[in-house]
Each structure stands twice: as C-alpha cells, then as structure tokens.
Amino acid sequence: MNFILHLLLDAAVIFGLAYIMPQVDVKSFGTALLIAFLLAVLNFFVGWIIRFPLNLVTFFLLTGLVRLVVTAIMLKLIDSFMDSFTIVGFWPALVIALAVAVAGMLIDRSAPSKEMVESGYVVAQYVGLRFA
C-alpha cells in the first residue's frame, strides 16, 4: 500500500513540476506514473551500484546529497529513452529529485508501514499507531 502511495505522490510531484517548470515536459499523468515507476525500479536495481562508490569517496558523510544526485541522474536516464518526457539540463532534474525526496519523507513520516515501526525507524506511540 505504501508503495502505491509513493508512486502516486511521485507521479503527482513530477507532473506538477512539469507544469511549473518550462524545462520539463511530461505529456500526461499516465506518463508521470510510468516515470515514477521506472524511477523506483532503476533506483532499486541500479541506484545502489552508483551510490556505493560515490559514498565511499565521500566517506559516507554526504549520503543524502549523493542520493539526490543519483536520483537526478536516473531521471536524466529515463529522459534519454522516453519520447514523452524531456528534461532540459541537469538542474531541473535535481529539483525534481529533491521534491520527490521531500514528498517521500512526508509520506514515510505520516503513514509509516508496519516494517518501519518494527525496525524502530518510527516509534508507534509517537505516531499513535497500533498494529495487531
């Protein structure tokens, strides 16, 4: 359920920023949903391969910044093989990556999954959730 919520919110963020930013063009919300799905898949399968060496170089001090840059690179990669999605320049991709990260953080804080609570990432009493 949390994955679907993330996909929908990421697609809404991408589609909304494409409406605001002239450097970004997304044809439809369906395209934005496909972009969000491809971004999730690429970050899962390829992102860690790129993030790990960059984190080693920075001694794991800039993990969040490295994650944003890698997400922007993934967006540019998606741009290169999709005709219905274009990003002109790297900075708009970085702005979208930052907005997607903030939206994901807000979802994780407001609707934590059972696994997040069990791992100690979020305290159930603080959030007011009870899992049976």
UniProtKB/TrEMBL annotation:
Pfam families: Phage_holin_4_2
Keyword entries, A-Z: Membrane, Transmembrane, Transmembrane helix
InterPro entries xrefs: Phage_holin_4_2 (IPR007165)
Transmembrane regions listed in the UniProt entry: 28-50, 57-78, 84-107
Domain of life: Bacteria
Protein name: Putative membrane protein
